[in-house]
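Researcher: Next entry: Niemann-Pick C1 N-terminal domain-containing protein (Rhipicephalus sanguineus).
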Amino acid sequence: MSSSWLFTVAVGVTLVSSALAQCVTYGYCGRDEDSDKPLPCAVKRNPAPLESSFLEDACPALVDGKAAYACCDAEQAAVFKSEYKTLISLGVRKDSKCFKNFQNLVCQAFCSPKQSEFVAVNGTSGSGEKLSATESVYAVHKSFAQRVYDACKDVRTHIFGIKLMKYMCGKHADGKCSAQRFLDFVGAVYSEGGYSPLKIRHVLTDSPITVDGQTLEPFNPKIL
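Model: Predicted structure:
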């Protein structure tokens, strides 16, 4: 059996897998009333090409050559890049394990071309063809979530050396934080004391889950 034949089969399997995955959000449709932040559009469509230059600072794990297929557009990528500045301003280094893996966790939920494999939209607003996604479920593998939390839990900020989790675990910032509570805060909306324009329910699991008939495989990339 030739190596070229195996390569052809491998490429074919990859293309079929990519074709089956879809975007469940893409672009922006409307704004959240409480935060005035833009809300992603709830869609069912194929990923679209996006120049790598837009992803380099927004979701570098997706960068592969000059262009990549993504479920976010250039405007969304720019917003993600801007949002990361809050972490940097607190003193989290861009080259740190905490920053790189937190960035990957967040951006893949919106930009991954395989978004529908681990994200489902279960809340929308608006009418007609352009619906805003107001709530989503994000299946994350328990081990990956724990590794991201472990990479960040002892990071200290510029503010009197206070630990990052003091600012990123909501009501559990008094030493009772955990991977789940950390991500609960990341996905919390303004009315819950968070900063996300849409509610993101991070489900930490080591097996597939089903949301409104859609099967989600937990997101479990290599730690960066």
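Model: Note for the record: Helices lie at 3-20, 52-55, 74-90, 97-111, 142-152, 179-186.
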